Amino acid sequence: MPKLIKDNAVVDNTWELLEATDTPEAVEVPEAGAIVPLNVWKAQKDQLESRKNSLGVWLNSDELAEELADDAQGFGLIAVNFPGFMDGRGFSAARLLRERYGFEGELRAIGHVIRDQLFFLKRCGFNSYVLGEGANLEEAIASLSDFSETYQAAVDQKLPLFRRRA
User: Fold this and answer.
1) What is the CA radius of gyration of the chain?
2) What torsion, rounded to 10 degrees, do the Cα atoms 117, 122, 125, 130 define?
3) Do the beta carbons of residue 97 and residue 125 sit within 8 Å?
4) CATH code for 3-165?
5) Secondary structure letter of residue 143 according to DSSP
6) What is the pLDDT of residue 94?
7) Measured between alpha carbons, how far is 146 from 98 in angstroms, rounded to an integer?
8) What is the DSSP annotation of 108-136?
9) Alpha helices (runs of H) in the chain, residue ranges in sequence order
10) Which residues is 164 bridged to in the sheet?
11) CA–CA dist 126, 78 (Å, integer)
12) What does the alpha-carbon distance between residue 6 and residue 15 come to, in Å, rounded to a whole number?
């Protein structure tokens, strides 16, 4: 079973990520443990609403957190795809999901996620990370605490440093 980092520990990845599709209404969604693309959720929302807590949904980098809005609460997991190293839109999506839409469940970074990003992903609200094949997850956990102090406010620290010193 593939592994990932969740809540600062290496655990089994028990969720199945369903691929993006151009025919979202035709996708058969398993009963539980599936992460569906946003367009599948939108196309089948009426049928899937009752089992929302056992489903996940994933946003691609060109999809906005606003498209989930109030639907975000109640999902077992929300994943945000990072298609490349230079695409940082997922960081904003995570902050919006946590701060504006009140999502408190598992927020997972998927796609092109590298060890150097983990500390910053955590600051934006992610608590779960799927790294590339061959990544040493035990060593990567150390990246979650690369810095001992932060200056800015973020999801994981509501006050900036100058306010904490006062």
Assistant:
1) 16
2) 60
3) yes
4) 3.40.50
5) G
6) 97
7) 22
8) EEEES--GGGHHHHHHTT--EE-PPTT--
9) 38-43, 45-48, 89-95, 118-123, 137-141, 161-165
10) none
11) 10
12) 12
Q: Could you tell me the residue ranges of all domains in the chain?
A: 3-165
**C-alpha distance from residue 83 to each of 44, 59, 116 (Å):** 25, 11, 16
Query: What is the mean pLDDT, run by run of 10 residues, along the chain of 166 residues?
Result: 95 96 92 94 94 94 93 94 91 96 96 95 97 93 91 90 87
Can you read off the two tokens belonging to residue 18? 């369903």
Sequence-ordered list of residues with C-beta below 8 angstroms from that of 86, at least 6 positions apart, any chain? none
Q: What angle do CA 56, 157, 68 make, to 5 degrees?
A: 25
How far is C-alpha 82 from the chain's CA centre? 10
Count, in order, helices (H) and strands (E) of the chain. 6, 8
Alpha-carbon separation of residue 28 from 14, 56, 71, 75, 131 (angstroms): 18, 14, 20, 18, 27
